[in-house]
Design goal:
Length: 515
């Protein structure tokens, strides 16, 4: 199965995935950012509302006290006004210091005591701060004045008295010498959560504690009508915590976003890797099929050729006939090994291969199959040395599986024997807990970087010397599987140009736990 045509679809899907990941990332971060700034706006707005309400309350307390001034507008004449003032003067609310009645030129009609000095005071200190023509008549106006370095607050009502041609100014002077007394009742509830400060034009603190560097959510507003020379400032006490909380939230959101992006990207990477693996396996399988068909073709051609020669009576003397028959036999053996390998491998792939273990002598099995291999070795011009330690203990193994292991190792020893030292040594000996089968050749050897992979399915070296030799890349993976199934293990020691030694070990039966 070729995967041509798929890559473009895959690349298309990859592009879509990357695009949507990036878009999603951008959208999410924008959304989170917007949400945060919306939250900030809400917090600032609620603080601004709080300030406006507080200023309103402060002003209201003055405006309430101003209310009785309007009573004077309905009085019939000047004596009634003066009489009303005299009685009001005796019961002034605590925040009011004095009541005055003046003419616009500064002459004082009430109180009658110290009228001259009061008149002087108004003319010198107050009137210069007043724009008389901007005072709306019949309405209470306010003057927030700094007099002799102290702040005063005056309520002013410009009005006319029936029967009088003059215009009068009714003045109520407030006692604001102690701003704490003035503002504390109003801001008391806020002080728990907010820092509050009232400053004047010159930035002097009038009330509260100075707020150091204006931070986030800091709000300041001027008193609109009464104490208009003062600035009201408010800042949440937990600004630091709010900022910390915001930073944490930002960090958490960022981390979550990054984590999700990493997740998506790693999932994509996994798909990418598994797809590459799939392509690799498919290629390997294709090569495997090519190799197997090729490996079958050669022995079949030889068998066909030599059997035809025999049938045609070409083998006149016995030694030629024997030679032809030997070739036919060797090629049949080779095909049998190949077919067995393919079948067993197919079973193994489908998870069907089972070994049936029995107590046996490994040397017996090995020697029997070596005998059958003799002709092939001779034909391949290989010399064989066999050494068997006498009295080898038994193992638990499967005869067919063991034969396949041995034949594959010998087959490889022949295939990769090279030109020079065409020799293979088979040794059987025991170790403390094992019976060991060693198959050593003196051929081309294996590159160190390929050693960990030679037992992988379909692995074939890229070495040109290996590529010249026919092979399917399933022999050793099958050997490893069969050895594992018999509770053994397999190792290889090899160096390029010096040959390879395959060491297969099976547990000695006397070392196995009694079952
Ligand atoms: P095949 O021999 O059909 O290619 P195997 O699974 O038997 O497949 O072997 C896998 C690979 O291991 C071979 O292609 C070869 O590169 C390497 N190899 C196996 N046995 C030997 C050996 N005796 N000497 C050198 N290389 C070997």
């Amino acid at each position: 199965m070729k995967l041509t045509g798929r890559p473009s679809l895959f690349h298309f899907a990859t592009a879509i995935l990357l695009f949507s990941t990036v878009t999603l990332g951008l959208l999410t971060s924008r959304f989170v950012g917007e949400k945060e700034s919306a939250l900030e706006v809400t917090l600032s707005q609620s603080n601004m509302r709080l300030v406006a309400q507080t200023l309103e309350r402060a002003e209201q307390s003055v405006l309430q006290t101003d209310k009785p001034l309007y009573d004077y507008l309905s009085l019939p004449d000047l004596p009634a006004v003066l009489e009303h003032m005299a009685s009001a003067q005796s019961s002034l609310p605590p925040q009011v210091k004095h009541l005055y009645l003046l003419e616009l030129d500064g002459s004082v009609l009430f109180p009658s005591e110290h009228a001259d000095s009061i008149s002087r005071f108004f003319r010198r200190k107050i009137f210069p701060q007043l724009q008389m023509d901007r005072i709306t008549p019949l309405n209470v106006n306010h003057l927030h004045a700094a007099v002799d370095f102290r702040y005063s607050l005056y309520s002013l009502l410009k009005f006319q008295i029936p029967g009088e041609a003059r215009t009068f100014l009714l003045v109520q002077e407030y006692d604001i010498s102690d701003p704490d007394k003035l503002f504390m009742p109003i801001v008391q509830d806020l002080l728990k959560n907010y820092q509050i400060c009232i400053r004047d034009y010159e930035n002097n603190v009038v009330f509260g504690t100075p707020i150091p560097t204006p931070r986030k959510y800091f709000v300041e507003q001027r008193f609109p009508n009464t104490f208009y020379k003062w600035l009201f400032q408010l800042s949440p006490r937990n600004t630091f915590e709010i900022e910390q909380e915001e930073a944490n939230r930002r960090l958490f959101n960022g981390a979550l976003l990054a984590f999700n992006l990493v997740l998506i990207l790693s999932a994509w990477l996994m798909v990418f890797v598994s797809r590459r693996e799939e392509i690799r396996l498919t290629r390997q399988k294709e090569e495997f099929i090519r190799n197997v068909s090729h490996e079958m073709k050669t022995p079949l051609a030889l068998i066909k050729m030599f059997s035809e020669l025999l049938l045609m009576g070409r083998g006149k003397d016995e030694s030629t006939r024997d030679e032809y028959l030997g070739i036919i036999n060797a090629e049949t053996e080779r095909m049998t090994l190949l077919i067995n390998n393919v079948l067993d491998f197919a079973n193994l792939e489908r998870g069907l291969q089972r070994v049936s273990l029995e107590e046996l002598h490994l040397d017996e099995v090995v020697l029997k199959h070596l005998e059958a291999f003799d002709f092939r070795l001779k034909k391949e011009n290989m010399s064989l040395t066999v050494s068997v330690e006498p009295g080898l203990p038994c193992i638990r193994g499967d005869r067919n599986a063991l034969a396949l292991v041995l034949l594959n190792l010998l087959d490889n020893a022949i295939k990769y024997a090279g030109e020079k030292n065409r020799r293979v040594d088979v040794r059987l000996y025991s170790e403390e807990k094992w019976v060991v089968l060693s198959v050593r050749d003196y051929g081309i050897g294996i590159l160190p970087q390929e050693l960990p992979r030679i037992f992988d399915k379909f692995f074939r070296s890229d070495n040109i010397a290996v590529r010249k030799v026919r092979g399917s890349g399933i022999g050793l993976s099958l050997v490893k599987y069969l050895v594992d199934a018999q509770k053994g293990d397999i190792r290889v020691e090899s160096a390029p140009g010096e040959g390879s030694t395959f060491l297969v070990r099976f547990p000695r039966i006397d070392a196995l736990p009694a079952s």
